[in-house]
Amino acid sequence: ELFLRASIVCSPRYLLLNTINGCDIKYLFSILLLKDDVDLEALVNDMNSSFESLYTSCSVQTESTSLLHNGQPPRPAAYHTHAQPTSQHQRLCRSQPMHILAVRRLQEEDQQYRTSSLPAIPNPFPELCSPASSPTLSSGSFPQCQPSGKYIIKIFSEDGMGKVVEIPADMTARDLCQFLVYKNHCVDDNSWALVEHHPALGLERCLEDHELVVQVQASMTSESKFLFRKNYAKYEFFKNPLNFFPEQMVALCQETSGTIPPSQLLQNFLNSSSCPEIQGYLYVKEMGRKSWKKLYVFLRRSGLYFSTKGTSKEPRHLQLLADLEDSNVFTVITGRKLHNAPTDFKFCIKPNKVRNEVKELRMLCAEDEQSRTCWMTAFRLFKYGILLYQNYKIPQQRKTLLSHFSAPVRSVSENSLVAMDFSGRIGRVIDNPVEAQSAAMEEGHAWRKRSQRMNILGSPSPLHASSLSGVIHRTQLWFHGRLSREESHKMINQQGRVDGMFLLRDSQSNPKAFVLTLCHHQKIKHFQILLCEEDGQMFLSLDDGATKFTDLIQLVEFYVLNRGVLPCKLKHPCTTVAL
């Protein structure tokens, strides 16, 4: 601030004190008269001329020039300086005391306007939004505006390689997955997911499609990271709800009795007015201790509870274990020894405010994989409700919309494949099954003879023992080379235990064999693919030579269309992507 002080002494008989504030000239004090015979008008004119010269030399703009006079708009400073008023009684000067009251009145009105710009809203929760003594909401009680701009996110693949992307603040997990699929030329089958991974806690979960990536990253630590991988089980419960929710674990609310019909199972979970619940025994780890207790637990929309008296559902016997609103359910990826867990089927409920505090986690253990999947899926349904169904329907609606702009393509399935005979001038469909089988065997023998002739001419057999490491199947996404049994279990668990998920790998016990790892009914099974010899040729077989194949690609294509000796058809290849 610029402070100018001017003191004008007209006579020993008068005392004139005046203080001028260069930033706020509206405060002018004052004239003290010591005698009644003073020429007041001459004194005022003298003061005005002195202040005018002082104001012009300092070029200080004040608020007094913008004051309204009798409702008229403000006049420019040049007009006040050079224009002469019609009479001395109408002359207006900046040092005149009459401006003081006007400025003070405007200041009071401005202050009153500022304090009343925010209406007095009754505060229903004074202990949450403001001090207990405050009956209204203050401006600081309102939520901050959503951040805007660009943010840097680093995404990792399962091979440890990372990729840095720049995303807006409102980008969802689905949008980011679509972006990565496009950039890495992946197959867009709506099964890709963004995974929140916490290595320090040994936890991970798949983000829901509607979640904002920037908000999730704000709650993560520097050691945490995002993973980009497949998750076939994300919406599988909409297709096969009975595989995810066993009848003995699903019940109605405590006011009613009976079980939920299969046709109404998902409708009750999605309908907020219904009251289904998941019940059963769980191993619960005590907070801050390594001991576990087996408790009868209930999962409802209001939270996770356990009964203090057997399986009683009475409210006086229920205690809250965890809240659903401010928590997320995670899969525990560490071994049993770290938490001294009673089983391998561990999961965890982590509050959003918890960073690296293991003591604040609610660790749980189920009896088997189906029970764990049921608890975790029900947690998602109770928390997000109809949002999950909308996320499930969006890709289907997008596919239907795109189909209107593209040419119709005939779908090929096992029901549309027929045996054909092209030995004549025109092809014909073979209707007789016996004739079709004999034609297939004849075609197979002819192909083997052609292959044998190529080997004689010097082209080595693709399944010769010396060239097994270089055959074409090693370029396929479903083949994972020297993958151990435990690592194959881990990969299938990470990408969702759904029926038909499979991968192929080298056998660890037999260097000349392969292993098909297949998931069926939440269980992982292994089938050995052996080499068999016939007429000097090497073939692959899964059923001791009953069905023979020249390579693994042919074997996989056959079991995609036919179940054969397998418990189910091959459906979802377990793949990885390099970013």
TrEMBL record:
It comes from the Eukaryota. InterPro entries: BPS-dom, GRB/APBB1IP, Grb10_SH2, PH-like_dom_sf, PH_APBB1IP, PH_domain, RA_dom, SH2. Residues 478-574 form the SH2 domain. The keyword Cytoplasm applies. Keywords: Cytoplasm, Phosphoprotein, SH2 domain. Its main location: cytoplasm. Gene3D superfamilies: Phosphatidylinositol 3-kinase Catalytic Subunit, Chain A, domain 1, Pleckstrin-homology domain (PH domain)/Phosphotyrosine-binding domain (PTB), SH2 domain. It holds the Pfam family SH2. One of its GO terms (cellular component) is cytoplasm. The lineage of its organism: Eukaryota, Metazoa, Chordata, Craniata, Vertebrata. Belongs to the GRB7/10/14 family. One of its GO terms (biological process) is insulin receptor signaling pathway. This is Growth factor receptor-bound protein 10b.
